[in-house]
Amino acid sequence: MGVVFEGPVLEGALVRLEPLSRRHAADLAVAAEEDRSSYRFTWVPTAAEVDGYIDVQLARVAEGRLAPYAQVDLASGRAVGATAFWDPRPWPTGDGLCAVEVGFTWLAATAQGTGLNTEAKYLLFRHAFENWGVARVDLVTDARNSRSRAAIESVGARFEGVLRNWSRSWVPGEEGQLRDSAIHSITAAEWPERRAELQQRIARFIERRQQAAGLAAGG
After folding, report:
1. In degrees rounded to 5, what are phi and psi of residue 18?
2. What letter does residue 165 receive in the DSSP assignment?
3. Rounded to an integer, what distance in angstroms lies between the CA atom of residue 182 and that of residue 71?
4. What's CA 76's distance to the chain center, in Å?
5. 130: which residues sit within 8 A by CB, 6+ positions away?
6. Are residues 1 and 96 in contact, defined by beta-carbon separation less than 8 angstroms?
7. Which of 61, 54, 68, 52 is nearest to 18 (CA)?
8. Which end of the chain is less crowded, N or C, counting CB atoms within 10 A of the terminal residue's CB?
9. How far is it, in rounded angstroms, from Cα 208 to Cα 15?
């Protein structure tokens, strides 16, 4: 393939993406149990399932199909969720990647809306476009998951359509069934503009965090 499909450590101002390992298990077990109300359409392990979840993801690493990360909140130093590069697709020549998906993303309830997701996506997109030289990054979610679709579009991905009966459902009670998948993407031509937009959004999140820290210190 010309590219080793593994994710290096990626660090920003709010989040550090560390290649997923068993040392993240204890933090992820706590993060996953904070409030599970937003996880209906997403594969998020319970505390008791975290070890098995990590084993499954590491098996996919061994197959060259996945490059998973733990999302570490730099303010606390704790892993508060996960994300991944997934489904690498080579150029027809076999020289390097032409496309990759960003997925398997979830965050603890207290980390949602804090800018961690925005910066994590920025770091993943930047690596895919600027290091691997991909032509596009895909983001795919259950077509019924309006929350996830809004989050995907908020980081600049364009909705392309719904593929019916496209992939497995993660909804409890739908084991063995297929779901309709909403497909989104960012292309290499769009990346410079999306990069600037994401940098501006991240700067606003950083400013809010700094203001909150200042108020807390003053109080």
Report:
1. -110, 135
2. E
3. 24
4. 19
5. none
6. yes
7. 68
8. C
9. 15
CA–CA–CA angle 159, 193, 203 (5° rounding):
100
Cβ–Cβ under 8 Å, residues 143 and 162: yes
Two structure tokens written together for 16: 């550090």
39 exposed, middle or buried (CB, 10 Å; 0-12, 13-18, 19+)? middle
Is the Cβ–Cβ distance between 97 and 88 less than 8 Å? yes
Q: Is 110 left (phi over 0), alpha (psi -120 to 50) or beta?
A: alpha
At 130, is the secondary structure helix, strand, or coil?
helix
Give me the helices (H) in the chain, please.
Answer: 25-32, 50-62, 116-130, 146-154, 191-218
Matching residue, tokens 């997109």: 125
What is the tens place of the pLDDT at every residue in 172-202? Answer: 889 999 999 999 999 999 999 999 999 999 9
* Sheet of strand 66-73, all strands in order from the earlier edge strand to the far edge: 10-11, 15-19, 66-73, 78-90, 97-107, 136-142, 178-187, 158-168
Strands 97-107 and 136-142: parallel
Which pLDDT tens digit goes with each residue over 69-110? 999 999 999 999 999 999 999 999 888 899 999 999 999 999
Chain centre distance of CA 145:
15
> β-pairing, 15-19 with 97-107?
unpaired
Q: How far apart are the first and last CA of the chain?
A: 55
Spatial CA neighbour of 151 closest among 139, 160, 162: 139
As a whole number of angstroms, the distance between CA 201 and CA 204 comes to 5
